[in-house]
Design a protein that fits this description.
Rossmann fold, 6-phosphogluconate dehydrogenase C-terminal fold, 8-stranded mixed β-sheet, 11 helices
């Protein structure tokens, strides 16, 4: 197939590298930074640099941009996708994205499937991308009424890239779960390192500090957009987190060892049961 990848950052670049490493498909790269395109071409991550004509030839298009930029790109180029072309995004939020892109697909004759590869790292950009980023990770698809053949095509590509789990869900389920599994940990990490003790942690910290603070190396512009795009779901999850922290704080303030043991034991049991 001819596969176009729009945006060769961490995710787009890793998709390109994984496809080139594991498949015989032709990969066409699009990026606003010419240097990134030249780097990708010289490293063999793409076969050629994209153009409007190349977009018309594509069988699959991965739009690897921020949510609003992804919607804008598809809107501006909707007339260039050939009938039956599969267009998918990699946005970390689906509310406000899936409905608009589904409407564009229906109006212009291409197929849209919402997508979210559950992988990443602290660094961003093409230079941080790698072919093995997705090994054994989860790829979430929001079908948006796409035909089964399109879902099978994207699932097959995901498996070829190294993903170990394929999940399908509605956009509402996606956004609720992502608020809990992804957005809350980023909030927690950022809130944690805001302590004045952060500047003094060297020599006093080990694995616990690293584990909790890791994702505080955050792309602030991207995550601000993701938080606001999912504000209702994220706010609900933060209320739950604050309530649980308050329960532990109150037990500590009162010197209630029995309550502390009960809360920590309940947390351990949930972690052991659900992973």
């Amino acid at each position: 197939m001819r596969i176009a990848i729009v945006g060769l950052g961490l995710i787009g670049g890793s998709i390109a590298k994984a496809l080139k490493a594991n498949t015989a498909h032709t990969v066409i790269g699009f990026d606003r930074d010419e240097n990134v395109l030249l780097d990708a071409l010289s490293l063999g991550a793409i076969d050629r640099i994209g153009s409007t004509a190349a977009l018309r030839e594509a069988d699959v298009v991965y739009v690897c941009l921020y949510p609003e930029d992804a919607v804008a790109f598809v809107r501006d180029n909707a007339a260039h996708f050939r009938p039956g072309c599969i267009v998918t995004d990699v946005c970390g939020i689906k509310g406000g994205v899936c409905d608009r892109l589904s409407a564009l697909a229906a109006a212009h004759g291409f197929i849209y499937v919402g997508g979210h590869p559950m992988a990443g790292k602290e660094r961003s950009g093409f230079e941080a991308s790698e072919a093995g980023l997705f090994y054994n990770a989860s790829y979430i698809f929001v079908p948006c009424d796409a035909p089964e053949a399109a879902l099978q095509t994207l699932a097959g590509l995901a498996e070829a890239m190294g993903f170990g789990t394929i999940r399908y869900c509605t956009q509402q389920t996606h956004d609720r779960m992502i608020a809990y599994t992804s957005q809350v940990p980023h909030v927690l990490a950022c809130a944690y390192v805001m302590s004045p003790r952060c500047a003094e942690h060297n020599g006093f910290s080990a694995g616990s500090y690293r584990d909790v603070s890791r994702v505080a190396r955050i792309n602030a512009e991207l995550w601000a957009d993701l938080f606001l795009s999912n504000r209702a779901e994220l706010s609900d999850e933060l209320v739950e987190l604050i309530r649980n922290i308050e329960s532990i704080r109150e037990a500590v303030d009162c010197g209630d060892r029995e309550k502390i043991v009960a809360l920590l034991s309940a947390a351990r049991e949930k972690k052991e049961k659900f992973g």
